[in-house]
Design the sequence.
């Protein structure tokens, strides 16, 4: 369902689609790595360097933009003053119940786990998105790399020719910064799940002419590098070569190559097509894929909106989890479903729920995660956490530890060291397998 955001925050008043369309011509080259990204961010010669050899671990992040209601998803409170009209239904994990709006996901919960005790103390969309995807408090004058950039840096196989950080964006934020890791690790954004723009050779240019043109470019580059080679020239050459690799593998991004049966199983909704694309990318060992789904900012008619939004989410997501498990990919793929915050237990005068960072939920599963676990607890009507309070920093550590990254390590950039994750936080150890 597409709707106007009732909160009228700046995060939702910018015309992102129009803005991004004007930038797409330059985004691919920048995302694949330019000078600052290739030469500036290097891991130190420490134990962290060995994490490049972590071996085919991947992260799939599903971001439910706007703030999905935990009460209509992962932590229902039926028959209470805050619970709303929906029932809690059993899952494939004994004793675990989720909202009846997620019947297909309920059948996959033996692969997944719930954190029901987030207290992020935040009700702002922009700040919530940044903090959940960087694991750090947003502070003036600071800029931390997105989870996708960190994953691409630490999990990309050696000589990996595809982008390591891909955002499949139907809606929602595209602010996937690499910060000090450099633009090589920023996201390649796929608008509406389409292959990246400008990756198809113009029909007027024959393959023979293209090969001849590239051969001439390589000779000229080699001649230039013989006398004037610098880190910058190496970076630009690297960027161009990786772009050529991407053009050669354009079919990786094309879901029409999947069987008609699979396309039907995932459905023809935008989110369904995006989940099928995510599976295809993970099968090609892309280290980080994020799929956006929006709009959950339900300040009015919360229940009607969640019927439609979760109705669109449920079957494709459950199908994706089932497929990853059946194909042997889930054991090496960390799956997370997050938002920027949850929604208020109190139902407002417009039958909506407002922003709520005090007691809400995140789903994790797959690689390195104990299946079927429930971490933390809220009180009977969901107004506060009563057991195992955690926040975005703990979740960030947990995701990285699950894919065998030492989240207590450091990046060495120039002569400076930067902690991989917030050193004041730690993983949720009882959730790790």
Sequence:
């Amino acid at each position: 369902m597409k709707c106007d955001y009732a909160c009228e925050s700046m995060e939702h008043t910018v015309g992102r689609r129009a803005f991004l369309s004007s930038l797409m011509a330059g985004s691919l080259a920048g995302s694949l790595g330019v000078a600052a990204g290739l030469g500036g961010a290097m891991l130190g010669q420490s134990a962290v360097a060995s994490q490049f050899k972590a071996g085919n671990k991947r992260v799939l992040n599903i971001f439910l933009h706007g703030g999905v209601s935990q009460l209509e998803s992962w932590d229902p409170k039926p028959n209470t003053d805050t619970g709303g009209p929906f029932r809690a239904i059993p899952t494939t994990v004994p004793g675990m119940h989720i909202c009846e709006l997620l019947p297909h996901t309920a059948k996959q919960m033996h692969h997944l786990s719930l954190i029901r005790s987030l207290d992020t103390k935040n009700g702002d969309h922009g700040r919530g998105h940044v903090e959940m995807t960087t694991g750090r408090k947003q502070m003036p004058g600071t800029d931390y790399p997105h989870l996708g950039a960190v994953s691409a840096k630490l999990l990309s196989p050696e000589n990996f020719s595809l982008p390591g950080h891909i955002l499949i964006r139907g809606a929602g934020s595209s602010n996937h910064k690499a910060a000090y890791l450099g633009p090589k690790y920023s996201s390649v954004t796929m608008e509406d799940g389409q292959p990246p723009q400008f990756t198809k050779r113009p029909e007027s240019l024959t393959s023979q002419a293209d090969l001849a043109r590239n051969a001439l470019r390589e000779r000229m580059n080699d001649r230039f590098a013989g006398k004037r080679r610098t880190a910058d020239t190496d970076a630009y050459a690297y960027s161009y070569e990786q772009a050529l690799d991407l053009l050669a593998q354009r079919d990786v991004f094309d879901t029409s190559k999947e069987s008609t049966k699979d396309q039907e199983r995932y459905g023809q909704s935008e989110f369904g097509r995006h989940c099928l694309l995510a599976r295809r990318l993970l099968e090609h060992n892309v280290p980080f894929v994020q799929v956006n789904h929006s709009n959950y900012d339900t300040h009015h008619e919360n229940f009607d909106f969640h019927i439609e939004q979760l109705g669109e989410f449920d079957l494709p997501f459950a199908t994706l989890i089932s497929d990853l498990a059946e194909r042997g990919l889930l054991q090496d793929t960390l799956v997370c479903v997050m938002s920027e915050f949850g929604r208020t237990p109190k139902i407002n005068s417009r039958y909506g729920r407002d922003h709520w960072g005090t007691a809400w939920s995140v789903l994790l599963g797959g690689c390195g995660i104990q299946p079927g676990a429930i971490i933390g607890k809220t009180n009977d009507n969901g107004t506060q956490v009563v057991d195992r309070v955690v926040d975005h920093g703990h979740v960030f550590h947990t995701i990285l530890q699950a894919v065998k990254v030492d989240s207590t390590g450091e990046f060495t950039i120039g002569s400076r060291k930067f902690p991989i994750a917030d050193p004041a936080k730690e993983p949720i150890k009882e959730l790790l397998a």
About this structure: Residues 124 and 355 are 8 Å apart (CA to CA).
